[in-house]
Hints:
six-stranded parallel β-sheet; 2 domains; 6 strands; alpha/beta; single chain; Hypothetical protein af1432; 49% helix; elongated; Rossmann fold
Amino acid sequence: xxxxxxxxxxxxxxxxxxxxxxxxxxxxxxxxxxxxxxxxxxxxxxxxxxxxxxxxxxxxxxxxxxxxxxxxxxxxxxxxxxxxxxxxxxxxxxxxxxxxxxxxxxxxxxxxxxxxxxxxxxxxxxxxxxxxxxxxxxxxxxxxxxxxxxxxxxxxxxxxxxxxxxxxxxxxxxxxxxxxxxxxxxxxxxxxxxxxxxxxxxxxxxxxxxxxxxxxxxxxxxxxxxxxxxxxxxxxxxxxxxxxxxxxxxxxxxxxxxxxxxxxxxxxxxxxxxxxxxxxxxxxxxxxxxxxxxxxxxxxxxxxxxxxxxxxxxxxxxxxxxxxxxxxxxxxxxxxxxxxxxxxxxxxxxxxxxxxxxxxxxxxx
Length: 365
């Protein structure tokens, strides 16, 4: 006889919190955990196909130390039609398949208070032992806990959120999952790419990948800030250039010496805050000054500035410049700045705006 934990949900997408819940349940119950992605969730509107969810769960599981005790079931995904999957049907299936084993149902602490709303909740609690993850909390619905015989799986709760990941307000999931989201144009990537040309969109992906590698290699405290900022750095570089001129009009007085090719960095910083609801100053500034630079830049801003200039798709051999950034953000940034000035001179590009001059004066003294 073995213990089996059924862990269903939207997993849209899977994040650190999901894997932590599964790991704690496996350890405390000495159980195998089965992830069961819903084809159509009861409580939420799904954003991607079941196949994408399955692939992301598989990637996340592969990064867990308990991966040998984890598996994924396509039972709900494989159901025909567009009907909502109810947990009671899934539990009955597993109870019939493994009649001699102990079946547990793992739910989040947030579901304790609404468990009575689940379809055939009482029957469900008779077929499977209901376990909820989180701290013992007297504010939870004690009647539900008693009625359905719920048991606590102790563990620290967190604010990891699939919604925040979908909206790019956090990336609290595994690198392999993030790579999958980016390469398959899921969630926030659809929005990022909706208003820019395809070549610009692919450029943004390459900048993001390089910026993240530089940040991690240099052991930046929060390297995903560089990834987020890099993904968004050209978010206001529209297909329709006249739109940039129109939107820049309200900033014209403050940045009167900027040429039209630089408008997008100023517009983009505002767009990041208003449309993406990202207010972290390091991310906003990295977007705002990624083309011109400025004096006294943060490491995140230096990384995004450099990655934008030297990503491998730029059409020249940037290996030495990339290696310089991988070795040292401070020294590498200066090296990239010098190379960029030479490029400006060679191409006859006007770089005499205030922001660029302040940047050069500060770092190339």
